[in-house]
Amino acid sequence: MSENILDYPIELPHADISPYAAGNTGVPYVTTYDSGEPGLHVLIMAVTHGNELCGAIALDHLFKNNVQPIKGKLTLAFSNIAAYESFDPENPLASRFVEEDMNRTWGLDVLDGDRDTIETRRARELRPIVDQADVLLDLHSMQTMATPLMICGALEKGQEFARAIGTPEYIVSDAGHKEGTRMRDYGGFGDPASSKNALLLEAGQHWEKAAGGIAIDCTLRFLKHHGTIPADFLMEDQLPLPGMQKMIKVTHPITIQSDDFRFAQPYLGFECIEKEGTILGWDGDQEVLTPYDNCYLIMPSRRLKAGKTAVRLGRLID
Prior knowledge:
Elements (H helix, E strand, L loop, with lengths): L29 E5 L6 E6 L7 H11 L8 E6 L2 H5 L22 H4 L6 H15 L2 E8 L6 E3 L4 H10 L4 E4 L23 E9 L3 H17 L20 E10 L5 E3 L8 E2 L5 E5 L2 E4 L5 E4 L10 E8 L2
Parallel strand pairs: 2-3, 2-4, 4-7, 5-6, 6-8
Antiparallel strand pairs: 1-3, 5-7, 8-14, 9-11, 10-13, 11-12, 13-14
């Protein structure tokens, strides 16, 4: 497989989400359905990154099939609209964000600070919606053709939550990025004392056809797990469960220190490097080595700039 992400064909459609622009919450592109019955407030978030098409496909599918909660509330939201609307299949990487990565803007220092970008303004607009949610599923995709995974955060409650959903095969437990806080880790989601909980799905490569179906399947399973929708709703869109889930705990996020980071090989993700001390790459003149035997590589990046996460290293824990 080529290491050049631009070699991947765009197999997914760019869903038209303009019919959902008005919403019904006072926040553009946010729609909440209230069953009138007691239950959790469940939030599904799409297009936190504008070039990740699967989330928009999943929400569009729910809207078109008239999804309605049978208990609690269900909110369907589109996040970085400006980035999504700028998507150009001739330059698909450019629409990840407009001014900054929106999934690094969810720290209180940013939300309560004076940084003023398209993404911080939209995050502050969405903040009251996210605050209302009891549980969140944030729909994403990846740069490389790697196996889909569920990111559950560093806490035990997140690990248990991912196991309860039952798919995809791999669960990644990590503490996030030094560059900034993800929505998945915001507020009560990242507080061990809070009953709130969140998961982040990486449904596959950004534009591969399978990613749309995986996003739909995981969304349906997430909603059915909470009893938000009937168990037989869109059963035909559900995929077989994996035989057994595998959890990898991230031990070493590799944050790039220089503007000259190179991988030793075109890693895609989930490679298991057998020997401690194996060279993975170079950060300037500094070798990047595996810290232990049987080290897994999680989501190696092609955005190799100082301050970004190059790759996360982890152990298989079950």
